[in-house]
């Protein structure tokens, strides 16, 4: 096996850049609802937001989409952007923020390896908010292969992380 057979295990997906119809509406959602901080703006055409002072995790622009509509269902494109939270409690805080803002979830799932919330931004872009369980807790079969699944996630159980 050559070093060129697989991507370097240290590779990461660094950011997502989304086309949006209304920059101010999109910034308000990612900043005020999800809690990202604006790091850079390019007038009324683009904004970059981050968590923890990184240059940007999310780019938003209206360069080719100002006033546009969401992509129709059953067409190709981005299924969702996944935002990884460091702990279950941090995901619970995100759920509380969503509820406080009146955001409706598309779903909530326990995948064995992770717990996830699914929703849409104001432009119809899919978003997954999730946290990963510790690797030693991931479900496996007798041969050690991952056995991910999809079961309903108890939102009450998740919000219980915020008690006490």
From TrEMBL:
Keywords: Metal-binding. It comes from the Bacteria. Residues 12-132 form the VOC domain. One of its GO terms (molecular function) is lactoylglutathione lyase activity. The keyword Transferase does not apply. This is Glyoxalase.
